[in-house]
Write a structure and sequence with these properties.
With 359 residues, this protein is an alpha+beta fold. The chain is 17% helix and 36% strand. The protein has a domain at 230-323: Roll (Pdz3 Domain), CATH 2.30.42.10. Strand 2 (62-70) and strand 3 form a beta hairpin.
Length: 359
């Protein structure tokens, strides 16, 4: 007897229900509940924070998200999240609240850095190079939409190299995503399926669904490498010019490569163009910002060790830090360097320009 397609479908569903029922009755789960997204969420949640910025005019506080980028308490978020506050309240993933200090806020990139001091051990995220992003990649965002703490949103990359204008300044090389992003997600991390930090949530399209935007990690690294450089922190000059290389989909797929060197090495081993830098002063590095922050606690005249790979061989090179010859890109003591009162707190009142909203 031949069964019709409809009867085959019903029969298949009945068999599946029977198998699941038997598995449940025997205390055996037939399907794994953990998947790459659950792994991503639980692994990266400790690096995500909630940022609450009081309104100086007495209104409702501005709520956004941030991500820890250095274990010593450095957090990045959006400019519009903290534009009206110097000392926001930062809530860690475990509920611990700490008063933060806005160290810089730049409207032209819609980026800000907040520093916190805490005895808690912090977990930092490392920004990856994003030249190989693909439309169709699965992505995930963690944030605090409408105050619902530590919420997960997933979607796909739906566009690359977008240009948007959520406020007065145009943002370029923006990642477009389909994830459900809402007010409170601003400044939060965007991860790829491997849990790598590829961007920071910045805006959503008004009167649309599934159209949201994130600042590219490449842009963020450039800003942090300039404003939070070793020169800015410790007035040291390392003499290095870097490039970043990508290789493959998994494993150690990103490395820092010496492009030029105008410093001083002690001993016989010297840095050469093409050297792949693996560690600086004992800290693993995968991007230029990693190199800068590895030298924050050093001073001119110090000698630090660099582990590099050259033609398949591992070398240890002693680098002597010089003195900065210029004023450097000193970090602001407060966010007053940017015209922070130019627009209303967008994450709170949903300030709109050209159909864009900052969540």
């Amino acid at each position: 007897m031949r069964l019709s397609p409809a009867r085959l479908t019903l029969l298949g569903g009945a068999i599946l229900s029977l198998l699941v029922g038997i598995g449940g009755a025997n205390g055996v789960n037939p399907f794994a509940r953990r998947n790459p997204i659950t792994e991503l969420y639980h692994k990266n949640l400790p690096s995500v924070v909630k940022i609450t910025a009081p309104d100086r005019r007495g209104g409702e506080p501005n709520i956004g998200t941030g991500v820890i980028v250095d274990e010593r308490g450095w957090i990045i978020t959006n400019w519009h999240v903290v534009q009206d506050c110097d000392t926001p309240c930062v809530t860690l993933h475990d509920g611990t609240q700490v008063t933060g200090k806005v160290k810089f806020a730049r409207r032209q990139w819609d980026l800000a850095a907040v520093e916190i001091k805490t005895s808690k051990k912090l977990r930092a995220q490392r920004l990856v190079r994003t030249d190989d992003l693909m439309v169709g990649e699965l992505v995930a965002a963690i944030g605090h939409p409408y105050g619902y703490d530590n919420s997960l949103a997933t979607g796909y990359i739906s566009g690359l190299k977008r240009q948007i204008r959520p406020a007065k300044d145009e943002l370029r090389d923006i990642i477009q995503i389909t994830a459900s992003i809402n007010p409170g997600n601003s400044g939060g991390p965007l991860f790829n399926i491997n849990g790598e930090l590829i961007g920071i949530i910045v805006a959503i399209r008004n009167e649309a669904q599934g159209i949201a935007f994130a600042i590219n990690a490449n842009t963020i690294k450039e800003v942090l490498s300039r404003l939070l450089s070793a020169e800015a922190f410790a007035q040291v000059n390392h003499g290095l010019v870097f490039d970043e290389k990508l290789a493959g989909e998994t494993g150690e797929r990103q490395s820092v490569v010496v492009k030029a060197f105008q410093g001083i090495c002690e001993g016989e081993a010297v840095l050469q163009p093409g050297d792949h830098v693996r560690t600086v002063a004992g800290q693993a590095v995968i991007n230029r910002f990693d190199v800068e922050r590895a030298l924050w606690d050093h001073k001119p005249g110090d000698t630090v060790e660099l582990r590099v790979e050259r033609e398949g061989k591992s070398l240890v090179i002693a680098l002597r830090l010089g003195t900065s010859t210029g004023a450097g890109s000193a970090v602001s003591a407060s966010p007053a360097d940017a015209p922070r009162s130019a627009t209303a707190p967008m994450a709170k009142v949903l300030g709109v320009s050209h159909g864009m909203t900052s969540p």
